[in-house]
Amino acid sequence: SSVSVSLSFLLTSTNMSGDSLAAGSFVAADYAVFALMLLVSAAVGVYHAWMDRGQASLGDFLMGGRRLTALPVSLSLTASFMSAITVLSNPAEVYLYGASIGFYGLSYVMAMVVTSEFFLPVFYRLAITSTYEYLELRFSRATRLLGTMLFIVQTVSTKSTHHKRGFGHREQNGKCDT
């Protein structure tokens, strides 16, 4: 079928000389780009560690001294919120299941608006960096630990559910439709 043809195309590619490359094989250019990416990332980290070596506290480090504008904060939140797997799998998800995934995007936007307008101003005024700190401040340390444990359980169960679902086929009535 067309799905198996397109999936087999994704799993193999050709290099400039026309030789077929199996999925997962790196050539010299791939290694060079990968090494350059790691070096640039490490250089950015070393530069900022050197420039900010006189930071006063952990809170100052985590909050950027409260000197950051909305753009770097929003980019950082987006990068930590969405994994690379999410970004890479969305086109395949739309191809296999249709554009209903757009409802997830809509719900994310609504959640971000509510969070930024209602919760973040409270966190900013209290000078806290996480919802767990707020739980401890508002209730108790036991509530903070319970919230942490519930988040861990939810994250592990969600990730395991996504990995069990697999990629490349959808079952309906016990039959694979691809």
Describe the structure.
- The chain has 178 residues and is mostly helical.
- The protein is 70% helix and 6% strand.
- It has 8 helices and 4 strands; from the N terminus they run αββαααααααββ.
- Helix 7 (131-138) runs antiparallel to helix 8.
- It is extended.
Descriptive keywords:
178 residues, mainly alpha, two-stranded antiparallel sheet, two-stranded antiparallel ribbon, 70% helix, extended, disordered N terminus, transmembrane helix, Sodium:Solute_Symporter_SSF
Give the SSE string: HEEHHHHHHHEE
Kindly report how far apart the N and C termini lie: 7 Å
Residue share in β-strands: 5-15%
Tell how many strands the DSSP assignment holds: 4
* Protein structure class: mainly alpha
**Overall 3D shape:** extended
Give the mean pLDDT: 76
- Biggest sheet, strands in spatial order? 1-2
Largest sheet entry: 2 strands, antiparallel
The radius of gyration computed from the alpha-carbon positions, rounded to a whole number of angstroms, is 22 Å
Q: What's this model, at a glance?
A:
Helix content is 70%, strand content 6%. By secondary structure, it is mainly alpha-helical. Strand 3 and strand 4 form a beta hairpin.
Task: Present the secondary structure layout.
Blueprint: H1 2-11, E1 12-14, E2 20-22, H2 28-51, H3 58-63, H4 70-81, H5 84-97, H6 102-126, H7 131-138, H8 141-165, E3 171-172, E4 175-176
Antiparallel strand pairs: 1-2, 3-4
Protein name: Solute carrier family 5 member 8
Family: Belongs to the sodium:solute symporter (SSF) (TC 2.A.21) family.
Keywords: Cell membrane, Ion transport, Membrane, Sodium, Sodium transport, Transmembrane, Transmembrane helix, Transport
